[in-house]
Structures are given as C-alpha cells and as structure tokens.
Specification:
Layout (H helix, E strand, L loop, with lengths): L1 H14 L9 H16 L4 E5 L6 E7 L5 E10 L2 E10 L2 E11 L8 H7 L10 E10 L2 E6 L11 H23 L1
Antiparallel strand pairs: 1-2, 2-3, 3-4, 4-5, 5-6, 6-7
Length: 180
C-alpha cells in the first residue's frame, strides 16, 4: 500500500509540466482551465474550417452547447510545420499553445534524389522543435513563455506584435466558425 502511494505520487509529479518561471495566480488559473479543457477534448465536436490558404488546415472544436472551446491551425510546408491551438473560456481567448518544427531539409523525395541535387536529405533526428505558450485575460496577452519556458518581457515590441497577431488570427477564425 505504501509503495503504491509513493508510486502514484511520483507518477503525478512526473506528469506535471515543469515551469521555469514563477507564475502569477492568473496564469496558474488559465493553465488549470487549459488542462481541464484538454481532459474534455474527446467530448467536443470537431468542425473543419475552409480557409483560402493552401497548406493550412483549421479545425474548430465545440462543446455540446455549440461554443468554441478550441481552434487548431496547422500549417505545413516542405521545410516545417507550425501548429497553434487557441483555447477559449466563455467565448474569450485564454491560452494559445504554439508548436513549431523546422526540418533540416525538404521531406519530399528520397535520400538518393537529395544527393543527386547536392542537398542534404531529410533527417527527422535533425528536426528542431520549439513550443511557446501565450496566456490571455480580458483580450490582452498577459504572459508569453518562450521555448525555454522563460517569460518574454511584456514591454518588448515583439510581445505586442505577437499579441496583435494572435488576437487577429483568433478573431478571423471565429468569424469563419460563425459563418459555417
């Protein structure tokens, strides 16, 4: 019994993400809400969105009441992939998780073809992956944790540019969902 309890506690602590930054209570609450939404994902109704961009796939996930809980946008090219997941609570954006992968070379074609063209062949072990987390409250970006789980300074020009870009992308997709 004691060993089972220790194993359970270790398992729980290992499954929680380690955060290198001290989080505000608001960010902690958003993280909890995000984790709660993740647990309910299998109950959501996926709806593919048709956007006028090639290489872009968008899916809206709605709850039983028809409210958007998550929008997922996947952009794929020969040299990489970018996935953004927009999470909502009470129709308000609360969290964006962005995962990017940059390939060392185009994944189309064989190693023989790459050699004949004088380029490096695609090697999945050389793929560079990054992940950024964006926390929103009251339609404002309140914290951005970069790929090193470090907070990006909110006074930085890039911070405000990211805020505007993410809010714009979110609202454009919500319009698409409403039109469908």
């Amino acid at each position: 019994m004691r060993l089972s309890l220790i194993t359970l506690c270790l398992g729980l602590s290992l499954s929680l993400p380690s955060i290198a930054v001290a989080e505000s209570s608001k960010v902690q609450q958003i993280r909890q809400n995000y984790e709660h939404l993740q647990l309910k994902m299998c109950n959501f109704d996926p709806q593919e969105l048709k956007l006028n961009t090639s290489g872009l796939e968008s899916v809206a996930f709605k709850d039983k009441q028809g409210q958007v809980q998550m929008l997922k946008v996947t952009a794929v090219s020969e040299t990489g992939q970018n996935v953004k997941e927009f999470f909502y609570e009470d129709n308000a954006l609360i969290f964006v998780k962005e995962k990017s992968q940059r390939f060392n070379s185009s994944f189309y074609g064989s190693a023989v073809e790459a050699k004949a063209q004088g380029v490096e062949a695609y090697d999945p072990l050389k793929t560079i992956s990054t992940e950024n987390h964006y926390f929103f409250a009251d339609n404002q970006l309140i914290e951005w944790q970069d790929q090193n789980k470090q907070a990006v300074a909110s006074q930085a020009v890039l911070f405000k540019q990211q805020e505007a870009a993410l809010l714009n992308q979110s609202s454009q997709m919500l319009v698409q969902v409403a039109l469908k």
